[in-house]
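Protocol step 4 of 6: structure prediction from sequence.
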Amino acid sequence: MKGTTQEPQLRLHGWSWLFKASTALKELALPLLAFLVLKREEELLLLGVTVGVALLALAWGLLRARSFRYEIRADEVVVRDGMLVRELRHVPFSRVQSVSERRGPVHRLLGVTELVLESGTGGKPEAVLQVLSPAAAAALAGALRLHRAAAGNTGMPPADAAAGADAAAAEPLLVLPTSELLRLGLVSNRGFVVVLMAAGAASQSIELLRALPGLRDLGPALDDGLSEAAAAGLLPLALWLAALLLFALVLVRVLSLGHALLTQHGFTLTRDGTRLRVRRGLLTRIDVSGRTDAIQRLVLERNPLHRLLNRCCLRVDLPTAPMPGVAAPAQLDHLAPIATPAQARRLLLECLPDLDLDALDWRPLHPGATFRRARRTLAWVLPLALGLALAAALAPVLSAGTRAAGLVLAAALPLAAVWHARRWVATARFAVGAGVLVWRSGVWTQRWVLLPQSRAQVTSLHRTPLGRRAGMARLNVDTMAPTPRRALVLRWLAEADAVALNQRLWRAGA
């Protein structure tokens, strides 16, 4: 922290109180809704409580907006926030790893924007400026760009270096047209999220749904159709269920198409020096950037639909912190939601220029990995197959053909599990090249994980008694990125390979 005690002088935009009040109102929405549901008969009390909560949120927003000040200096931004407990924070430009700008429909209507600065140190973001005018946001972004240019110039004035960086950034690395967004909607399953949200909302509003025309008789109609198909025989029942499944798949794909068009509209990836910048969104415009030297992990994925369309997905992990109150995921998480393999390869070289993918020396897993993988899968497949076989053999209502089909399916499940284990181990490989640890795996969905060795924060080597006897080990790797699971898990390695990788990662981190 700097030694100066000078207070920052700049304030947020005049509409800032409205957004801070809406954030407070969102936090009070759930208890207020519960109160409204429980006290539906007392209309006067409901009106008073609603008005009181709105006034409290309004007062809170005004006080928070008045207490926030900031100042842009040559090499840092200084932020003062808080009412009862005041916090003076210095955010050096050299530590800013991620910058995100969010403009929803209300932001654009009022001519404001929200800016978030992240250093990846954990906790809350270094600075959340909610909200600024576009000119103030551009001034802060320009100061950050000028500092980067001054830090990396080679004798030219900082202003000229910044202008040169802006000219270089005019060339985009990836632009997704509408045709690619339609392909993205076909290969993604984001429509399931919309379906689950709709189902959750419907479960809380059964009475309202029953009052809507057309939906009142939907449930009984489905029950009657299923009963009639089951009474007609196995083939009509199978056709009825197949039609229902086809309708669900089409609905999910339509919703996924809408999600892709709304969230990824105008997707443009550009590079400005050591920073990658993504702009996207139709209703809510997202403008995010992150430093290439802060990348913790790159993940390349190809599911069956990706391979059918000759496409893939390239994700990136940066050391970001949770951002309460931000509606959209304002972080650089995808370098390419969808791209051709050639485009993904070029983007990988933009982030890891020293990596030679063709020269990687791929090493296999331990020879006993197939048995371990199959045993792990059979632990739940065998009880399922046994239950299916017993149901097919002992159920009196099933016909002879249905029993035979059930027994065949029960016998096929363990065989399929063993086949999948053999294929998974045959494709699983790891390689080390140019300071990067690369891991590939997967049968249906193929994944390549590229982890710069210097980003490994925590490594753990696991050897069970049976594993030590067989000469096998597992290596877990964690980075600074807040991933729901570990950044990389290498299972069933030969013990010598696992120990060598652990030592290599330890030396790179040190």
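Step 5 (inspection) to follow. The first strand starts at residue 10 and ends at 11.
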